[in-house]
Amino acid sequence: MSSRDLAIGFFVLSQTVVGVLGNFSLLYNHIFLYVTGCRLRSTDLILRNLIVANSLSIFTNGVPRTMATFGLKDFLNDTGCKLLFYFRSVGRGVCISSTCLLSIFQAITISPNNSRWAEMKVKAPNYIGLSISLCWLLYMLVNIIYPVFVTGNWRNDTIIKRKDFGYCSAKYHDRSADSLYAALLSFPDALCLGLMLWASGSMVSILYRHKQRVQHIHRTSLSPRSSPESRATQTILLLVSTFVSFYTLSSILKICVALFDNPSLLLQQIDSVFVLCFPTVSPFVLMGRDSSVSRVSFSCRRNKNSPNSIRYM
């Protein structure tokens, strides 16, 4: 094993460990808030769904890639490879759609009472569970194509040419079929990305106008501490920019892997690194801006005293 492969293997392993710890810490934070009787936000259900999607993506990407990098390449049979690639794609898709839903519902929540979203502010929380279920159903149906082409490396099939992914392989098929499958798999992602950017832009605009009005009215009573609106804006910008950056780089690498008949191991390893970046980083972004365990008592008192107040991200 070369020193380069060893370094990448340890890096992917570190990403996996840090990502698992980060997501489970965020999940513990939400469970702690729930157990202590704090009033939770409507978007907390989406955040918990994002934790599940992140964990699924980390386990299906980081663990097998680490094992393959350290020399264990034939540890999955045909069924294992089909399930691995299927749930990997489902986890990645649900991660994208959860980030999209988070932006949309948060934008509706902070919209002014005189806006066109005012009526939706009351109804939106009732549709969160349904929206999450539809996201899972959509990506489970769209990605059903993976088990058709993915196989294990242990199969000794000399008639059908295969593309090697290190620990699994895929059947070759013509370019027109590749283009059709790529369009089918990319459409939900592109739709979610567009909606997420639109919702995030709308939220930033709403919070900016609200901040300008508050500064104009209470200019003399401003405190140096940033307002909840400012913190919400920073969280949204940071989370969305992180997602878009890593998603764009990962998509470019996936296109390169798909175009090459025999993609190099290095290219696949780098692709795995960027795929793991958002699931690993996002829980720390949320914990850095969200209500932490150290502020639980304050948050509970604030929510109990102000039942109609809005908790920002």
**Average pLDDT figure:** 75
- Helix proportion: over 70%
**Weakly predicted, low-confidence segments:** 220-225, 291-313
Indicate the multimeric state: single chain
Strand content: under 5%
Structural class: mainly alpha
The count of DSSP E runs of length 2 or more, i.e. the number of strands, is 3
Task: Give the CA-based shape.
Answer: globular
Radius of gyration: 22 Å
Secondary-structure element series: HHHHHHEEEHHHH
How would you characterize this protein structure?
By secondary structure, this protein is mainly alpha-helical. It is built from ten helices and three strands. The chain has helices spanning 3-35, 44-69, 78-109, 118-123, 128-142, 146-149, 175-217, 228-259, 265-289, 296-305, and strands at 150-152, 162-164, 168-171. A three-stranded antiparallel β-sheet has the order 1-3-2. The N and C termini lie far apart (45 Å). Residues 220-225 and 291-313 have low confidence and may be disordered.
List the helices and strands and how they pair.
Layout: H1 3-35, H2 44-69, H3 78-109, H4 118-123, H5 128-142, H6 146-149, E1 150-152, E2 162-164, E3 168-171, H7 175-217, H8 228-259, H9 265-289, H10 296-305
Antiparallel strand pairs: 1-3, 2-3
Short description:
The chain is mainly alpha-helical and 313 residues long.
What keyword list fits this structure?
313 residues; 72% helix; mainly alpha; 3 strands; disordered C terminus
